[in-house]
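Support reply, case 0932

Customer input (verbatim):
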Amino acid sequence: MLVVDDDPALLKVLGALLTQAGLTPHPASSAKDALALLARQPIDVVVSDVRMPGMSGLELLTEVGRGWPDVPVLLMTAHGTVPLAVEAMRAGAADFVLKPFDREELLFTLRKALLRAKEETPRSAGKLPDGLFVGAGRAMSEVKALLAKAALGTATVLLRGESGTGKELAARAVHEGSPRRAGPFVKLHCAALPDTLLESELFGYEKGAFTGAATRKPGRVELAHGGTLFLDEIGDVSQAVQVKLLRVLQEREFERLGGTQTVKVDVRFVAATHQPLEDLVRRGTFREDLFYRLNVVPLWLPSLRERPEDIEPLSRHFLDVHAKTNGRPPFTLSADGLAALQAQPWPGNVRQLQNFLERLVVLSDGPTLTGADVARELSRQPGLAPPPVAAPSPTADSGTLESRRKDVEKDALVDALKRAGDNRTLAARLLGISRRTLYNKLEEHGLL
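Our regenerated output:
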Protein backbone atom coordinates (compact mmCIF):
# COMPACT_ATOMS: atom_id res chain seq x y z
CA MET A 1 0.00 0.00 0.00
CA LEU A 2 1.29 3.47 -0.89
CA VAL A 3 -0.15 5.94 1.66
CA VAL A 4 0.13 9.64 0.72
CA ASP A 5 -0.68 12.45 3.18
CA ASP A 6 1.04 15.65 4.33
CA ASP A 7 0.01 14.94 7.94
CA PRO A 8 2.78 12.87 9.66
CA ALA A 9 0.43 11.79 12.48
CA LEU A 10 -2.11 10.39 10.01
CA LEU A 11 0.65 8.58 8.12
CA LYS A 12 1.72 6.93 11.37
CA VAL A 13 -1.83 5.90 12.31
CA LEU A 14 -2.57 4.52 8.85
CA GLY A 15 0.74 2.69 8.77
CA ALA A 16 -0.03 0.94 12.07
CA LEU A 17 -3.58 0.09 10.95
CA LEU A 18 -2.43 -1.45 7.66
CA THR A 19 0.40 -3.38 9.33
CA GLN A 20 -2.04 -4.88 11.86
CA ALA A 21 -4.24 -5.97 8.93
CA GLY A 22 -1.34 -7.84 7.33
CA LEU A 23 -0.68 -5.24 4.64
CA THR A 24 2.61 -3.47 3.90
CA PRO A 25 2.40 0.34 4.02
CA HIS A 26 4.83 2.65 2.20
CA PRO A 27 4.36 6.23 3.45
CA ALA A 28 4.87 9.37 1.35
CA SER A 29 4.37 12.93 2.61
CA SER A 30 3.72 14.44 -0.83
CA ALA A 31 2.50 13.47 -4.28
CA LYS A 32 6.01 14.06 -5.64
CA ASP A 33 7.50 11.55 -3.17
CA ALA A 34 4.69 9.12 -4.03
CA LEU A 35 5.50 9.20 -7.75
CA ALA A 36 9.18 8.63 -7.01
CA LEU A 37 8.31 5.64 -4.83
CA LEU A 38 6.01 4.23 -7.52
CA ALA A 39 8.88 4.39 -9.99
CA ARG A 40 11.11 2.14 -7.86
CA GLN A 41 8.69 0.01 -5.78
CA PRO A 42 5.88 -2.37 -6.89
CA ILE A 43 2.60 -1.02 -5.47
CA ASP A 44 -0.83 -2.70 -5.40
CA VAL A 45 -3.01 0.19 -4.18
CA VAL A 46 -2.50 3.94 -3.63
CA VAL A 47 -4.34 5.68 -0.76
CA SER A 48 -4.02 9.45 -1.00
CA ASP A 49 -5.36 12.57 0.65
CA VAL A 50 -7.06 14.99 -1.75
CA ARG A 51 -5.98 18.36 -0.34
CA MET A 52 -2.17 18.56 -0.13
CA PRO A 53 0.30 21.39 -0.78
CA GLY A 54 1.85 21.32 -4.22
CA MET A 55 0.32 18.51 -6.27
CA SER A 56 -3.18 17.58 -5.07
CA GLY A 57 -4.59 14.08 -4.73
CA LEU A 58 -6.63 14.54 -7.91
CA GLU A 59 -3.50 15.53 -9.84
CA LEU A 60 -1.69 12.53 -8.38
CA LEU A 61 -4.59 10.34 -9.52
CA THR A 62 -4.10 11.61 -13.08
CA GLU A 63 -0.35 10.90 -13.00
CA VAL A 64 -0.86 7.40 -11.61
CA GLY A 65 -3.43 6.72 -14.35
CA ARG A 66 -0.89 7.71 -17.00
CA GLY A 67 2.09 5.81 -15.65
CA TRP A 68 0.52 2.91 -13.76
CA PRO A 69 -3.02 2.40 -15.17
CA ASP A 70 -3.48 -0.97 -13.41
CA VAL A 71 -2.92 0.48 -9.91
CA PRO A 72 -6.19 1.53 -8.21
CA VAL A 73 -6.23 4.84 -6.32
CA LEU A 74 -8.41 5.53 -3.25
CA LEU A 75 -8.89 9.16 -2.27
CA MET A 76 -9.63 10.37 1.26
CA THR A 77 -10.60 13.80 2.46
CA ALA A 78 -12.32 15.63 5.29
CA HIS A 79 -13.94 17.89 2.73
CA GLY A 80 -16.38 15.35 1.34
CA THR A 81 -18.60 17.40 -0.94
CA VAL A 82 -20.64 15.82 -3.70
CA PRO A 83 -18.92 17.74 -6.56
CA LEU A 84 -15.48 16.67 -5.27
CA ALA A 85 -16.58 13.03 -5.05
CA VAL A 86 -18.02 13.19 -8.56
CA GLU A 87 -14.82 14.77 -9.88
CA ALA A 88 -12.72 12.06 -8.21
CA MET A 89 -14.80 9.18 -9.59
CA ARG A 90 -14.90 10.73 -13.05
CA ALA A 91 -11.12 11.07 -12.97
CA GLY A 92 -10.80 7.34 -12.34
CA ALA A 93 -10.62 6.92 -8.56
CA ALA A 94 -11.38 3.38 -7.42
CA ASP A 95 -13.26 4.69 -4.39
CA PHE A 96 -13.68 7.68 -2.07
CA VAL A 97 -13.27 7.64 1.75
CA LEU A 98 -14.27 10.45 4.12
CA LYS A 99 -12.25 11.48 7.17
CA PRO A 100 -12.56 10.61 9.98
CA PHE A 101 -12.77 7.11 8.54
CA ASP A 102 -13.92 3.93 10.21
CA ARG A 103 -11.17 1.30 10.46
CA GLU A 104 -13.28 -1.60 9.16
CA GLU A 105 -14.79 0.49 6.38
CA LEU A 106 -11.34 1.59 5.17
CA LEU A 107 -9.97 -1.97 5.21
CA PHE A 108 -13.05 -3.26 3.40
CA THR A 109 -12.66 -0.58 0.71
CA LEU A 110 -8.95 -1.38 0.33
CA ARG A 111 -9.52 -5.11 -0.01
CA LYS A 112 -12.32 -4.54 -2.50
CA ALA A 113 -9.97 -2.42 -4.65
CA LEU A 114 -7.27 -5.11 -4.38
CA LEU A 115 -9.68 -7.86 -5.40
CA ARG A 116 -10.98 -5.86 -8.34
CA ALA A 117 -7.43 -5.13 -9.52
CA LYS A 118 -6.54 -8.84 -9.40
CA GLU A 119 -9.71 -9.93 -11.21
CA GLU A 120 -9.39 -7.42 -14.03
CA THR A 121 -7.21 -8.75 -16.83
CA PRO A 122 -6.04 -6.64 -19.75
CA ARG A 123 -8.35 -6.91 -22.74
CA SER A 124 -8.00 -5.31 -26.12
CA ALA A 125 -10.72 -3.04 -27.42
CA GLY A 126 -13.20 -4.76 -29.71
CA LYS A 127 -13.10 -8.05 -27.79
CA LEU A 128 -16.22 -8.78 -25.77
CA PRO A 129 -15.84 -10.10 -22.19
CA ASP A 130 -15.86 -13.90 -21.99
CA GLY A 131 -19.08 -15.48 -20.78
CA LEU A 132 -21.17 -12.34 -21.21
CA PHE A 133 -23.53 -14.00 -23.70
CA VAL A 134 -24.66 -17.62 -23.45
CA GLY A 135 -25.37 -19.39 -26.71
CA ALA A 136 -23.34 -20.03 -29.83
CA GLY A 137 -26.05 -20.39 -32.46
CA ARG A 138 -25.94 -18.55 -35.77
CA ALA A 139 -28.13 -15.67 -34.59
CA MET A 140 -26.11 -14.95 -31.44
CA SER A 141 -22.79 -15.38 -33.23
CA GLU A 142 -23.88 -12.70 -35.67
CA VAL A 143 -24.95 -10.39 -32.85
CA LYS A 144 -21.66 -10.85 -30.96
CA ALA A 145 -19.66 -10.08 -34.09
CA LEU A 146 -21.63 -6.88 -34.72
CA LEU A 147 -21.34 -5.80 -31.07
CA ALA A 148 -17.57 -6.29 -31.16
CA LYS A 149 -17.33 -4.10 -34.28
CA ALA A 150 -19.60 -1.43 -32.82
CA ALA A 151 -17.58 -1.35 -29.59
CA LEU A 152 -14.46 -0.17 -31.42
CA GLY A 153 -15.94 3.15 -32.46
CA THR A 154 -17.55 6.08 -30.68
CA ALA A 155 -20.77 6.27 -32.71
CA THR A 156 -24.14 6.12 -30.97
CA VAL A 157 -25.61 2.60 -30.91
CA LEU A 158 -29.35 1.90 -31.02
CA LEU A 159 -30.32 -1.56 -29.73
CA ARG A 160 -33.60 -2.88 -31.08
CA GLY A 161 -35.58 -5.99 -30.24
CA GLU A 162 -38.32 -7.40 -28.06
CA SER A 163 -38.35 -7.01 -24.29
CA GLY A 164 -36.21 -9.56 -22.50
CA THR A 165 -33.73 -10.15 -25.32
CA GLY A 166 -30.75 -8.76 -23.39
CA LYS A 167 -30.42 -5.16 -24.57
CA GLU A 168 -28.82 -3.99 -21.31
CA LEU A 169 -26.32 -6.86 -21.53
CA ALA A 170 -25.54 -5.81 -25.12
CA ALA A 171 -25.05 -2.19 -24.03
CA ARG A 172 -22.61 -3.30 -21.34
CA ALA A 173 -20.80 -5.44 -23.93
CA VAL A 174 -20.36 -2.38 -26.17
CA HIS A 175 -18.87 -0.48 -23.22
CA GLU A 176 -16.67 -3.32 -21.95
CA GLY A 177 -15.31 -4.01 -25.43
CA SER A 178 -14.56 -0.34 -26.16
CA PRO A 179 -11.55 1.90 -25.48
CA ARG A 180 -13.80 3.57 -22.85
CA ARG A 181 -14.05 0.44 -20.70
CA ALA A 182 -11.95 2.09 -17.93
CA GLY A 183 -14.60 4.84 -17.67
CA PRO A 184 -18.03 4.62 -16.02
CA PHE A 185 -20.98 2.69 -17.42
CA VAL A 186 -24.09 4.62 -16.36
CA LYS A 187 -27.61 3.43 -17.10
CA LEU A 188 -31.03 5.06 -16.92
CA HIS A 189 -34.43 3.42 -17.49
CA CYS A 190 -36.35 6.25 -19.17
CA ALA A 191 -39.79 4.61 -18.88
CA ALA A 192 -39.53 4.26 -15.10
CA LEU A 193 -39.50 8.01 -14.37
CA PRO A 194 -41.98 10.85 -14.94
CA ASP A 195 -40.84 13.73 -17.16
CA THR A 196 -39.85 16.14 -14.39
CA LEU A 197 -37.80 13.54 -12.55
CA LEU A 198 -36.31 12.15 -15.77
CA GLU A 199 -34.96 15.57 -16.73
CA SER A 200 -33.28 16.09 -13.36
CA GLU A 201 -31.87 12.54 -13.41
CA LEU A 202 -30.42 13.11 -16.86
CA PHE A 203 -28.99 16.60 -16.47
CA GLY A 204 -28.79 17.13 -12.71
CA TYR A 205 -29.80 20.31 -10.91
CA GLU A 206 -28.38 23.29 -9.06
CA LYS A 207 -29.01 24.10 -5.42
CA GLY A 208 -32.38 25.83 -5.10
CA ALA A 209 -33.59 24.77 -8.54
CA PHE A 210 -36.81 23.57 -6.92
CA THR A 211 -38.23 22.89 -3.48
CA GLY A 212 -36.08 20.29 -1.78
CA ALA A 213 -32.97 20.89 -3.92
CA ALA A 214 -30.67 21.53 -0.95
CA THR A 215 -27.44 20.79 -2.82
CA ARG A 216 -26.23 20.60 -6.39
CA LYS A 217 -26.67 17.13 -7.89
CA PRO A 218 -24.90 15.85 -11.00
CA GLY A 219 -27.03 14.06 -13.60
CA ARG A 220 -26.41 10.75 -15.32
CA VAL A 221 -24.98 12.49 -18.40
CA GLU A 222 -22.39 14.21 -16.24
CA LEU A 223 -21.58 11.05 -14.27
CA ALA A 224 -20.94 9.17 -17.53
CA HIS A 225 -18.18 11.58 -18.59
CA GLY A 226 -15.36 9.58 -20.14
CA GLY A 227 -17.55 6.47 -20.38
CA THR A 228 -20.89 5.25 -21.71
CA LEU A 229 -24.47 6.28 -20.95
CA PHE A 230 -27.13 3.62 -21.58
CA LEU A 231 -30.64 5.00 -22.11
CA ASP A 232 -33.12 2.14 -21.88
CA GLU A 233 -36.62 2.45 -23.38
CA ILE A 234 -35.76 5.64 -25.24
CA GLY A 235 -39.07 5.44 -27.10
CA ASP A 236 -40.96 6.45 -23.93
CA VAL A 237 -39.23 9.83 -23.55
CA SER A 238 -41.50 12.88 -23.90
CA GLN A 239 -40.92 15.43 -26.66
CA ALA A 240 -39.79 18.05 -24.13
CA VAL A 241 -36.95 15.81 -22.95
CA GLN A 242 -36.26 14.71 -26.54
CA VAL A 243 -35.29 18.28 -27.44
CA LYS A 244 -32.69 18.41 -24.66
CA LEU A 245 -31.38 14.96 -25.50
CA LEU A 246 -30.94 16.00 -29.12
CA ARG A 247 -28.72 18.91 -28.05
CA VAL A 248 -26.53 16.65 -25.90
CA LEU A 249 -26.16 14.16 -28.75
CA GLN A 250 -25.26 16.92 -31.22
CA GLU A 251 -23.19 19.31 -29.12
CA ARG A 252 -22.11 17.18 -26.12
CA GLU A 253 -23.18 20.02 -23.80
CA PHE A 254 -26.12 20.91 -21.54
CA GLU A 255 -27.19 23.03 -18.54
CA ARG A 256 -28.23 21.60 -15.20
CA LEU A 257 -31.80 22.21 -14.11
CA GLY A 258 -31.97 25.72 -12.60
CA GLY A 259 -28.47 26.56 -13.83
CA THR A 260 -26.95 28.84 -16.46
CA GLN A 261 -23.46 27.36 -16.79
CA THR A 262 -22.93 25.15 -19.85
CA VAL A 263 -21.42 21.77 -18.98
CA LYS A 264 -19.43 19.97 -21.67
CA VAL A 265 -19.14 16.18 -21.54
CA ASP A 266 -17.37 13.38 -23.37
CA VAL A 267 -19.95 10.59 -23.40
CA ARG A 268 -20.79 7.72 -25.72
CA PHE A 269 -24.52 7.03 -25.96
CA VAL A 270 -26.15 3.62 -26.28
CA ALA A 271 -29.95 3.61 -26.46
CA ALA A 272 -32.45 0.76 -26.50
CA THR A 273 -36.12 0.28 -27.25
CA HIS A 274 -38.60 -2.47 -28.03
CA GLN A 275 -40.92 0.02 -29.77
CA PRO A 276 -41.04 0.62 -33.55
CA LEU A 277 -39.48 4.11 -33.56
CA GLU A 278 -40.25 4.55 -37.26
CA ASP A 279 -43.97 4.29 -36.45
CA LEU A 280 -43.60 6.77 -33.57
CA VAL A 281 -41.89 9.21 -35.94
CA ARG A 282 -44.74 8.87 -38.45
CA ARG A 283 -47.28 9.48 -35.67
CA GLY A 284 -45.38 12.56 -34.54
CA THR A 285 -44.65 11.33 -31.01
CA PHE A 286 -40.90 10.88 -31.57
CA ARG A 287 -38.68 13.51 -33.18
CA GLU A 288 -37.32 12.49 -36.56
CA ASP A 289 -34.02 14.34 -36.04
CA LEU A 290 -33.48 12.58 -32.70
CA PHE A 291 -34.25 9.22 -34.32
CA TYR A 292 -31.53 9.75 -36.93
CA ARG A 293 -29.07 10.87 -34.24
CA LEU A 294 -29.73 7.66 -32.30
CA ASN A 295 -29.93 5.32 -35.27
CA VAL A 296 -26.28 5.66 -36.31
CA VAL A 297 -25.39 2.03 -35.57
CA PRO A 298 -28.64 0.02 -35.27
CA LEU A 299 -28.38 -3.51 -33.90
CA TRP A 300 -31.29 -5.97 -33.68
CA LEU A 301 -31.23 -8.54 -30.88
CA PRO A 302 -32.95 -11.81 -31.84
CA SER A 303 -35.86 -13.14 -29.86
CA LEU A 304 -35.60 -16.54 -28.22
CA ARG A 305 -37.91 -17.91 -30.96
CA GLU A 306 -35.16 -17.11 -33.48
CA ARG A 307 -32.49 -18.93 -31.48
CA PRO A 308 -34.16 -22.15 -30.22
CA GLU A 309 -30.77 -23.89 -30.32
CA ASP A 310 -29.68 -21.66 -27.42
CA ILE A 311 -32.48 -22.75 -25.05
CA GLU A 312 -30.43 -25.74 -23.85
CA PRO A 313 -27.20 -23.86 -22.93
CA LEU A 314 -29.23 -20.98 -21.48
CA SER A 315 -31.29 -23.36 -19.34
CA ARG A 316 -28.27 -25.19 -17.97
CA HIS A 317 -26.50 -21.90 -17.27
CA PHE A 318 -29.47 -20.41 -15.38
CA LEU A 319 -30.00 -23.63 -13.41
CA ASP A 320 -26.38 -23.47 -12.20
CA VAL A 321 -26.63 -19.76 -11.33
CA HIS A 322 -29.95 -20.00 -9.49
CA ALA A 323 -28.97 -23.16 -7.61
CA LYS A 324 -25.94 -21.34 -6.19
CA THR A 325 -27.77 -18.09 -5.37
CA ASN A 326 -30.66 -19.95 -3.68
CA GLY A 327 -28.42 -22.31 -1.72
CA ARG A 328 -29.65 -25.42 -3.55
CA PRO A 329 -27.61 -28.40 -4.77
CA PRO A 330 -26.80 -28.56 -8.50
CA PHE A 331 -29.75 -29.36 -10.80
CA THR A 332 -29.70 -31.42 -13.97
CA LEU A 333 -32.24 -31.26 -16.80
CA SER A 334 -33.70 -34.45 -18.24
CA ALA A 335 -34.30 -34.93 -21.96
CA ASP A 336 -38.08 -34.58 -21.62
CA GLY A 337 -37.61 -31.54 -19.37
CA LEU A 338 -35.49 -29.85 -22.03
CA ALA A 339 -38.00 -30.79 -24.76
CA ALA A 340 -40.79 -29.22 -22.67
CA LEU A 341 -38.81 -25.97 -22.36
CA GLN A 342 -38.02 -25.96 -26.08
CA ALA A 343 -41.71 -26.42 -26.95
CA GLN A 344 -42.62 -23.07 -25.34
CA PRO A 345 -42.80 -19.81 -27.34
CA TRP A 346 -41.28 -17.69 -24.49
CA PRO A 347 -42.85 -14.35 -25.48
CA GLY A 348 -40.83 -12.71 -22.69
CA ASN A 349 -37.64 -14.12 -24.24
CA VAL A 350 -34.49 -14.85 -22.20
CA ARG A 351 -35.72 -12.88 -19.19
CA GLN A 352 -38.88 -14.99 -18.98
CA LEU A 353 -36.92 -18.23 -19.35
CA GLN A 354 -34.51 -17.13 -16.63
CA ASN A 355 -37.30 -16.26 -14.19
CA PHE A 356 -39.13 -19.50 -14.93
CA LEU A 357 -36.01 -21.57 -14.26
CA GLU A 358 -35.40 -19.78 -10.97
CA ARG A 359 -38.95 -20.69 -9.99
CA LEU A 360 -38.25 -24.32 -10.90
CA VAL A 361 -35.10 -24.33 -8.76
CA VAL A 362 -36.91 -22.88 -5.74
CA LEU A 363 -40.04 -25.05 -5.91
CA SER A 364 -38.68 -28.39 -7.17
CA ASP A 365 -37.26 -31.15 -5.00
CA GLY A 366 -34.48 -31.96 -7.47
CA PRO A 367 -31.84 -32.88 -8.31
CA THR A 368 -33.25 -33.75 -11.78
CA LEU A 369 -35.86 -31.55 -13.43
CA THR A 370 -38.19 -33.56 -15.64
CA GLY A 371 -40.91 -32.77 -18.12
CA ALA A 372 -43.47 -33.29 -15.32
CA ASP A 373 -41.74 -30.59 -13.21
CA VAL A 374 -41.81 -28.18 -16.13
CA ALA A 375 -45.46 -28.97 -16.91
CA ARG A 376 -46.44 -28.45 -13.27
CA GLU A 377 -44.97 -24.94 -13.13
CA LEU A 378 -46.22 -24.06 -16.60
CA SER A 379 -49.77 -24.87 -15.50
CA ARG A 380 -49.42 -22.38 -12.65
CA GLN A 381 -48.19 -19.58 -14.91
CA PRO A 382 -50.70 -17.66 -17.07
CA GLY A 383 -49.81 -17.39 -20.73
CA LEU A 384 -47.72 -20.56 -20.86
CA ALA A 385 -49.29 -23.88 -21.78
CA PRO A 386 -48.06 -27.23 -20.51
CA PRO A 387 -46.56 -29.42 -23.25
CA PRO A 388 -48.64 -32.33 -24.51
CA VAL A 389 -48.24 -35.44 -22.39
CA ALA A 390 -48.01 -37.88 -25.30
CA ALA A 391 -44.58 -38.18 -26.81
CA PRO A 392 -44.38 -37.76 -30.59
CA SER A 393 -43.92 -40.89 -32.66
CA PRO A 394 -40.32 -41.26 -33.85
CA THR A 395 -41.59 -42.46 -37.24
CA ALA A 396 -43.93 -39.54 -37.79
CA ASP A 397 -41.46 -36.86 -38.86
CA SER A 398 -44.25 -34.33 -39.38
CA GLY A 399 -45.04 -34.44 -35.67
CA THR A 400 -41.55 -33.92 -34.26
CA LEU A 401 -40.76 -30.76 -32.32
CA GLU A 402 -38.17 -29.66 -34.83
CA SER A 403 -40.49 -30.10 -37.84
CA ARG A 404 -43.28 -28.21 -36.08
CA ARG A 405 -40.90 -25.37 -35.24
CA LYS A 406 -39.79 -25.17 -38.86
CA ASP A 407 -43.39 -25.11 -40.10
CA VAL A 408 -44.30 -22.25 -37.76
CA GLU A 409 -41.14 -20.34 -38.67
CA LYS A 410 -41.77 -20.77 -42.41
CA ASP A 411 -45.39 -19.56 -42.03
CA ALA A 412 -44.14 -16.49 -40.13
CA LEU A 413 -41.64 -15.69 -42.89
CA VAL A 414 -44.25 -16.03 -45.63
CA ASP A 415 -46.72 -13.86 -43.69
CA ALA A 416 -44.12 -11.14 -43.05
CA LEU A 417 -43.10 -11.02 -46.71
CA LYS A 418 -46.75 -10.77 -47.74
CA ARG A 419 -47.46 -7.92 -45.29
CA ALA A 420 -44.30 -6.12 -46.40
CA GLY A 421 -45.16 -6.40 -50.09
CA ASP A 422 -42.07 -8.61 -50.57
CA ASN A 423 -39.86 -5.79 -49.24
CA ARG A 424 -37.30 -7.83 -47.31
CA THR A 425 -35.94 -4.93 -45.26
CA LEU A 426 -39.44 -4.17 -44.00
CA ALA A 427 -40.15 -7.89 -43.48
CA ALA A 428 -37.04 -8.16 -41.28
CA ARG A 429 -38.28 -5.23 -39.19
CA LEU A 430 -41.73 -6.76 -38.83
CA LEU A 431 -40.13 -9.97 -37.57
CA GLY A 432 -37.72 -8.12 -35.29
CA ILE A 433 -34.61 -9.63 -36.91
CA SER A 434 -31.70 -8.36 -38.98
CA ARG A 435 -31.69 -8.56 -42.77
CA ARG A 436 -28.86 -11.08 -42.68
CA THR A 437 -30.83 -13.33 -40.35
CA LEU A 438 -33.87 -12.99 -42.63
CA TYR A 439 -31.85 -14.05 -45.70
CA ASN A 440 -30.40 -17.00 -43.79
CA LYS A 441 -33.91 -18.10 -42.76
CA LEU A 442 -35.30 -17.65 -46.27
CA GLU A 443 -32.49 -19.78 -47.68
CA GLU A 444 -33.03 -22.42 -44.97
CA HIS A 445 -36.72 -22.71 -45.86
CA GLY A 446 -36.22 -22.54 -49.65
CA LEU A 447 -37.98 -19.18 -49.97
CA LEU A 448 -35.24 -17.27 -51.81
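We compared this against your earlier run and they match. Two observations from our side: Residues 389-398 have pLDDT under 50 and may be disordered. The chain has four domains: 2-119, 138-302, 305-391, 398-444. Please reopen the case if you see a mismatch on your end.
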